[in-house]
Amino acid sequence: MAAQNAQILFPVNVPGAFDYRIPHGVNIKRGDFVFAPIGKQMKLGVVFDILEDDGGRTLKDIAQVKATQPLSVEMLRFIEWTARYNCVSPGLVLRMVVRSYKALDPSPMVTQFSPSESLPSKMTASRQSILEHGGPFPARASEISERAGVSSGVVRGFEAAGGLIAQNLPVDGPFGVPNSEHGGIALTFAQRRASDELIAQVAKRDYNVSLLDGVTGSGKTEVYFEAVAEALKKGGQALILVPEIALTQAGMSRFEARFGVAPAPWHSQLGDASRRRVWREVAQGRAQLVVGARSALYLPFPNLRLIVVDEEHDTSYKQEEGVIYNARDMAVVRAKIAKHSVVLASATPSLESLVNARTGRYAHVILPERPGVVTLPEIDLVDLKDHPPEKGDFISAPLIEATNAVLARGEQAMLYLNRRGYAPLIICRNCGQKLKSPDTDSWLVEHRATGRAMCHQTGFSMRMPTACLECKAEDSLNAVGPGVERVAEEAAKHFPDAKIEIFSSDTAGNPAEIAARMTRMEQGDIDILVGTQMVVKGHNFPKLTFVGVVDGDLALAGGDPRAGERTYQTLVQVAGRAGRADKPGHALIQTHQPDHEALAALAAGDRERFISAELGLREALLLPPFGKLAGVIISGEDLKKTEALAKKFVSLAPRADGVEILGPSEPPIGRIRGRYRRRLLVQAEMTVNLPKYMKTWRARVKPPSKYKLQIDIDPQSFM
Ligand code: ADP
Fold it and tell me: How confident is the model at residue 312 (pLDDT cuts 50, 70, 90)?
């Protein structure tokens, strides 16, 4: 047999793979993890490809094959595709896939105990407590003693007496096997028809995408559960992607109720040990049901049959740092490569997905109504010109009236404002200076609950000063504009007898606090919830019948071409929180722009009107989904050099038909953490291969060290 070489990809940011010789007699295949020398070091990499040796070069030998589950060929292709499309090196994508080498080793072992068949003759109260409260078994002595409230000596003694059996077991046990027949509710006729369509798609075991398009509360989750059940039934793996803030205990327990076991979770707050466990169990194909945030898409599933992207329109699917990618779009790519199904679910689908559904590229599965007698909330606009709030206030008379009516009926109200803290701006009355974040072009936000001034861009915070930092005038700092804390303060003035709570990432940051607040809300211990977008995701409050939106114009500002779409989506979702049980809901939106198409269509309850107006606009301007966009962010510590680099980059742009370059310009946040930033926007016709164009362009310039040039294909953020 002719000698063979292997292309090894290392999880580092270099342009491509390196060639090595495969030593004679060593059996190596694509996807294997191997050690190979780089300089004097041995590095772990993945065999990306195998080629016949042409004898032209002397190559170093691969040192050793690591005994572990290889990556599948589909996974390799997915890595390559992600890298090419998003204009990053494949090594960076591999690093996203293999974040911990320890996950490649089998789980460490530890002694664990379970009850034996026969009990010892001497049973004490402590031993009885072990049997009753020490489980689930098998468990470690420390776990059993904590749960049963006995010393670990008692656990050992019970084992010595024959009541417990000790076994050497993996520290990271397997996840429970989901039961597709467990749980499940009686679906309505429309839901059954939708779930049958999805099941048929999954059963094809081939690439297909369905857009599950159903109004808020129409039972989309119940319906896609059936598609998940179909994938699991045949022994496949299923991945459900949800926005990070929907990964709450309440969200997870819904899966457990349906499938009988807790799914394997994947999110940013997961500890290293849990991460390794999930990775390993997924790689072995044993974790069948995974619920996670966007990066779960890069777990090494060997046997994936279905990916559900819940709330597919959500902006949190876009990763904005490191490898900049959109998990919704990459989910479709992964399915195409590995030949399986994708379900994109939303009450407010992105225009991209809607157009794909309407042109037949995706199956369009529609749930037009809520089950039972539940109707969609009535939405009305409050023109702030006609109903200005009292001086210094932010809640207008119609919102006050509506809230009073709801409280009189013993129901609940929600006031929505997507702004954390007390006030978004702190200005000195004496000298007019605004309190600014150091090294970042962003104003500090006053957080009165903690007595701090915070930068929401960088997380910087300082004690709220008592005097102006510039002119030193005492007590001159003035809060300008509302945040949720201020709305709650004002609500307490208007509704003195109501129980009011704030729900934002500041007040309910950890899962336990979120769960506690949810329970208080469900039990009616809260009358008025003042919340940011955190309240929008996946919570059902049966007694919530009124939603007041304090600032309906908030998302319309800025240079985002999707601003209208985002406003429409958010407000539909916010309003959709009202009236989920048997009581009809009502939403009032305060606005300065009642004629804006997104708001007018919302008030008219006419989604189609908004979609066709918005699509018309996008088509005329060649914006997605009728044209392509790429963003370029150039950043560095010196303003002049950053600007010069941006200009030089523009001057090196390849000539191509159907490509237009806008900028460089200063983005809304011109400096972050001391680094100046400049932006370009590249607009291209549909026929242009934009990633390829950007790659050619990018290769023409080598930014000096400490200067960065990042490419963002299909940007969602324009900050
Ligand atoms: P969506 O995902 O579309 O917002 P959900 O699946 O969360 O909707 O359903 C909203 C609420 O209605 C949930 O509490 C759900 O359990 C309930 N529900 C949906 N369909 C039915 C049904 N056929 N019978 C009883 N309850 C249902």
Answer: very high
Report the nearest-CA residue for atom 18 of ligand 1: 219
Protein residue with least CA distance to atom 19, ligand 1: 219
> Per residue in 83-132, pLDDT tens?
999 999 999 999 999 988 889 998 889 999 999 988 888 889 999 999 99
Alpha helices in 234-350 (DSSP H): 249-259, 272-283, 327-338
For residue 512 and ligand 1, the question of a CB distance below 6 A is answered with no
Q: 216: Cβ below 6 Å to ligand 1?
A: yes
CA pair distance 46, 94, nearest whole angstrom: 9
Is residue 72 helix, strand or coil? Answer: coil
- Grade residue 561 by pLDDT with cuts at 50, 70 and 90: confident
Q: Which of 642, 678, 677, 636 is nearest to 661 (CA)?
A: 678
C-alpha of residue 371 to centroid of ligand 1, in Å? 7
Do the domain assignments include residue 179?
no
**Is the predicted pLDDT of residue 628 greater than 90, yes or no?**
yes
Asked if residue 332 belongs to a domain, the reply is: yes
SS3 letters across 91-112? HHHHHHHCCCHHHHCCCCEEEE
Ligand 1 neighbour 185 (Cβ under 6 A): yes
Q: How many domains are contained in the chain? A: 6
Contacts with 552 (C-beta within 8 Å, 6 or more apart), sequence order: 381, 567, 571, 589, 590, 591, 593, 599
What are phi and psi for residue 335, nearest 5 degrees? -65, -35
Residue 182 lies in a domain: no
* pLDDT of the residue at 517: 84
Residues 89 and 207 in one domain: no
Which residues are registered as beta bridge partners of 635? 677, 708
188 CB under 6 A from ligand 1? yes
Instruction: Please say if the pLDDT value at position 536 is more than 80.
Output: no
Task: Answer yes or no: is the C-beta of 222 below 6 A from any ligand 1 atom.
Answer: yes
What tens digit of pLDDT does each residue of 341-361 get? Answer: 999 999 999 999 999 999 999
Nearest C-alpha neighbor of 208 from the set 365, 366, 361, 367: 361
Distance of CA 220 from the midpoint of ligand 1 (Å): 7
Q: Find out whether the beta carbon of 214 lies less than 6 Å from any atom of ligand 1.
A: yes
Pocket test residue of 193, 222, 369 for ligand 1, highest count of atoms within 8 A of CB: 222
The 10s digit of each residue's pLDDT in 147-192 is 999 998 999 999 999 999 999 998 888 899 999 999 889 999 999 9
Torsion of CA 42, 45, 48, 53, to 10 degrees: 10
Does any ligand 1 atom lie closer than 6 A to the CB of residue 542?
A: no
Q: Parallel, antiparallel, or unpaired for β 4-9 and 341-346?
A: unpaired
Q: What is the 3-class SS of 519-540, one letter each residue?
A: HHHHCCCCCEEEECHHHCCCCC
- Do the Cβ atoms of 492 and 478 come closer than 8 Å? no
pLDDT tens, residue by residue, 405-451: 999 999 999 999 989 999 999 999 999 999 999 989 989 999 999 99
Alpha carbon separation from 73 to 20, 78, 301, 563 (Å, rounded): 19, 9, 11, 40
CA–centroid distance, 216 to ligand 1, in Å, is 9
Please check whether residue 718 lies inside any domain of the structure.
no
Distance CA 15, CA 7 (A): 13
Residues 499 and 616 in one domain: yes
Give the pair of three-digit tokens for residue 527.
Answer: 């009358």
Tell me the residue range of the domain where 85 lies: 4-98
CB 599 within 8 A of CB 379: no
Please tell me the pTM assigned to this model. Answer: 0.90
Q: How far is the CA of 219 from the centre of ligand 1 (A)?
A: 4
Query: Which value, in Å, is the radius of gyration of the alpha carbons in the chain?
Result: 28
Peptide bond into 377 cis (omega under 30): no
User: Same structural domain for residues 134 and 151?
Assistant: yes
